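Each field is set out underneath.
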Amino acid sequence: MSSTYRIVAGVDGSEGGRRALRWAVEQAARLGGTVQAVSAWTWGPTEAALLSGPSRDAMRAEAEAALADAVRALKTHEAVPLALEAVEGRPARVLTKAAADADLLVVGSHGHNRLFRAVLGSVSEECVRAATCPVVVVPIPREEPAHPRELVGTTSR
């Protein structure tokens, strides 16, 4: 084990990513550790992307902005050494590589919409399978429905 407890946190601009970073910073503060916040980005140089999509530099800037926004959302983090890194590549691969010598990898449970997860799979699930260190998946709290369902059934007399 390293002399400093190092946590890698996946940040993607979603609420899940912000919650993962917040949890990682709180844990690092308790353990006297450091946090490396990593945002993965990809750019597909297809003909359509070249004509109408964002440029490679724009995609990198978007990932860097997600990191900066997540850090701004933290209430306190001054006591925790925090490094920020935007890396080109598939998110799970980038995160597990960054965490190869870390003590812990922290990711959010939901970064993108259901269609994205159905087509490309869950980054958190892939990280759990591929990481060489423990992985914490920080859930997003469920919202209670405005009108809870009533149970319909028979009553005994």
Q: What stands out?
A: The chain has one domain: 6-138. The chain has six helices and five strands. Helices lie at 15-31, 47-52, 56-73, 91-98, 114-120, 123-130.
